[in-house]
Amino acid sequence: MTRERLYLFDTTLRDGAQTNGVDFTLHDKRLIAAMLDDLGIDYIEGGYPGANPTDTEFFAHRPKLANATFTAFGMTRRPGRSAANDPGLVMLLDASADAICFVAKASAYQVRVALETTNDENLASIRDSVGAAKAAGREVLLDCEHFFDGYKEDPAFALACAQAAYEAGARWVVLCDTNGGTMPHEISSIVGAVTRHIPGSHLGIHAHNDTEQAVANSLAAVRAGVRQIQGTLNGLGERCGNANLCSLIPTLRLKPEFADAFDISVTPEKMATLKRVSRTLDDMLNRAPDRHAAYVGESAFVTKTGIHASAVLKDPRTYEHVAPEAVGNHRKVLVSDQAGRSNVIAELQRAGIAFDKADPKLARLVEEMKEREAAGYAYESANASFDLLARRTLGKVPEYFRVEQFDVNTEQRYNSNGQRVVVAMAVVKVNVAGATLISAAEGNGPVNALDVALRKDLGKYQKYIAGLRLVDYRVRILNGGTEAVTRVLIESEDEQGERWTTVGVSPNIIDASFQALMDSIIYKLVKTNAPV
């Protein structure tokens, strides 16, 4: 059976950036774009070049993408201007992007009240903008903003906006439920009406989640004929968010209604990384993951004690609608030590760590993980720290060196230019093969100083860590008050570009940071088989 192609369009970096409390750095945007490209997303909307310095810089040095179409977002030409005389449109055409996604009003009410122009001028703006982008050799999309509300108010005008874009050469005409209040049955009916004028192979859906139905509305639109879905990772977006791609991707690939009819760009192998992708984004934003998120949430495949747990232990299909491994999640049965042991064994297998199921140390590892996770350690987000914890408990990590003492001080002073500066200094005393080595370093903060000092001189191991660098540092306060516990996640990278994450937890932020730093260095030594 031949399946139709269904395209996935991610707007995490643009619409998702409008989430309250979310502010992507340039580094964040580059990492997320690479992650989306590796996942297999068809279109990555990078932002609005010219709207802010971060987006402008992002498009000036576009990311290297292997799979996705890199897309710039912006408005159609302003009323009363020509396409060639609109600075915003000119900047879009100059942006280093494969495609341009214009946004235009598709509601007579919005044209009258928000734009304060005429319906005819709005239609001309759509035609002129799409035509200019086509002439510049770009693939063109048009987001018909407020389309569903506009259609319910004035069907002829909303449809005219969509047709103007299609007839001018837009590859995709995207129907937007901008206010997020349309019901699934309305989506189905309206999309069905539109497909009588524009082929579904040129239609997309952009749904907001204000009634908690963005995913349902997106699926309803697919059933009615659209062949592109726009959404965001973890459902980020203004107000209540956008359609969640972390829910849509597994549904499209695992549910027969869609899997038998459509082919998507995310392979089963890449879908198995979906939980990691979701968690990585949350970690970057310093947000607590939604434990109850569909498919990728920590609780999505958890069963507590009782008849449900008993049934799951006999056959997981009794209470699981899909296999958790398909999305990179895993089963947890909170019923006995045996269940905990099974979870740890699964983690060891995923990490590629050799073990003997009869080894009594496995039981100790189970208890150690329970105690540490209760204390705040997050091993789901810290693959390298889990690897080391498992190896240490199973007796497989050498003591390459021992930190005897460290001291960190922060000082405010005036530099030679008379400017007031704050400088941190760290001193670290380590024992390497019986020799005592003392290193000191300054940094722009206490953790940076400690990191530099710790890696400054490790004797015979120095060459093994020469290419190691810290690329990200995230702090989260786990509870409030004067006795707050801090969790630190550190992402490191080596000379081959391989990355890993380590975790530290302590009431003292420096101590938590030191734990994570130590794990990062030791993991590098283990990974490179450094001699003892």
Question: Which secondary structure elements does this structure contain, and how are they paired or packed?
Answer:
Layout: E1 4-5, E2 7-10, H1 26-39, E3 43-47, H2 53-60, E4 69-75, H3 87-94, E5 99-105, H4 108-115, H5 119-135, E6 139-145, H6 147-153, H7 155-167, E7 172-177, H8 184-194, E8 203-207, H9 214-224, E9 228-231, H10 245-254, H11 256-259, E10 262-263, H12 268-271, H13 274-284, E11 302-304, H14 307-314, E12 332-334, H15 337-351, H16 361-375, H17 383-393, E13 402-414, E14 420-432, E15 435-443, H18 446-454, E16 469-477, E17 486-493, E18 499-506, H19 509-527
Parallel strand pairs: 1-10, 2-3, 2-9, 3-4, 4-5, 5-6, 6-7, 7-8, 8-9, 11-12
Antiparallel strand pairs: 13-14, 14-15, 16-17, 17-18
What does this structure look like?
- This protein has 532 residues and is α/β, with parallel strands linked by helices.
- Helix content is 38%, strand content 22%.
- It is built from 19 helices and 18 strands.
- The protein has an 8-stranded parallel beta barrel, surrounded by 8 helices. It has a 3-stranded antiparallel beta sheet with strand order 13-14-15, with helices on one face.
- Strand 14 and strand 15 form a beta hairpin.
- Helix 17 packs across helix 19.
- The longest helix is centred in the last third of the chain and has 19 residues.
- The N and C termini lie far apart (58 Å).
- The model has no long low-confidence stretch (mean pLDDT 92).
